[in-house]
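re: that chain from earlier
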Amino acid sequence: DDFSGTPDKRWVKVVPTFSVEEGALKGVQTRVKDELGKDGKTVAIKAHAAVHGLEVPTKDSIVEVRIKLAGASMVDVELDDRKYTAAHYGHICRAQLRFNPKDKTFSAVIIDEKDGNMRNDIHAMKNDPAKKAEVAKLLLGRQATFPVKADLAEGKWIAVVVETVGDEMRLSVDGQPVAYLKS
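^ sequence. v structure.
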């Protein structure tokens, strides 16, 4: 979808912080940290990334997007199944392109969320400091991070392709494979 006309009706604003500007979908994160209420204890505004989804059935898939990180430090391509209840909010897997503004480098991260960090039991344990070692053991092999050695720059359009086949996922940037995970 190039967003120059009426977007496909299957697009869903999960976290409604998106707008269409000059034919591109622009997302803005709500907050970096939770904002507490006047009592100093209750969360008044929950921090959350901008989330815009496309409701299409998929099994093995190829997702292609062009992105521009204009002040953002990360973008995700995430596959979820809201009917899947064994992982928090139906999270299955995600691929991230991250930008480190300090050293101007990019990295690629692929995460198995179905059997990893969003699996309900693991997600619940992450808040318990006493379970840190157990969580780390359960997450072994469920995430991979790779440096991206490409001619990328903040503010430049970047082609991102995420391919999933069975239990394998690959991320390519500007036509070059940069990350792979089998989980």
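The chain has a mean pLDDT of 87.
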